[in-house]
Amino acid sequence: MGDTAHRLTTDRAVMFRTDTRKLEKIALHLVSAADKAVTVKASLHAARRLQDFNHSAPLAEAAAQVAPGTDGWVEFDLKLDLQPGFYFVRVAKQDKVSWTLFATQPEQTGRAYMAGNDWKNMPGTYAIRLLPGGDWARLASDPQAARGEPFAAANVVNGYARAVRGWPNSWRPDPQQALPQWIELDFGRHCQFDTVHVSFQSKTMRARDFSIEVASEQGWQTVAEVKDNDDRRRVLTFPRVSADKLRLTIQKATSEAGMCEIRVYDEGASQGGRAAGQSGAAAPG
Asked: Of 107, 128, 147, at which residue does a domain stop?
């Protein structure tokens, strides 16, 4: 467990992915500075993708009494059935109580706090257990177990567009293999999109030449190409396509090149655009 705890001076939330079908309880690691028992309220919400804390109706709500001097796990009864996917626990303001953070951030988790009427995403993860089905306490004390490989393909969809606290949050082509090399997003269904945001590790760790392809009945179709790139972040637009897979192929880059994030949008769907497949699975090649 980490040494950092944040007071519940505003609503705070933790997100996670689970394959658990039956959730009896959650446990949160809380610290009380109150001189008497206080009530802490929590609710469970479904999320469309990692780091998306947009408002959704609670699937379940619970409250727990936190005794004075508490510094440990506090259980909340939920008792509900779940489908595999992303969820977040929202904890209501209670400024006599603090919520501990894990020492390191387990994979496919995130946190946020309420600033005004909006959620503000932050690095790190508040300490949580699912009962039964998920105890990240061991993982959080072991950075390699918690986060997986430092340059894994899955990093491009973990919600971070840059390195955080020394962790690269990027995919890096295999330096032992020749270019071109590619990374693929599998959305699991056909999506319409016309815009791809690409963020590299840094300007000096960018790819120089790369292309965007989509899967079609005729094979892979190129929809965008970049030559002599000089930017850390690129926004690529093209005529709207419908596909269940997207591939970014790097043709030219240094051996230190790293890609932190690929975001896919259907900008034509609405004024603000709509995420088409940010939560897709990523695989290298």
From this structure: 147
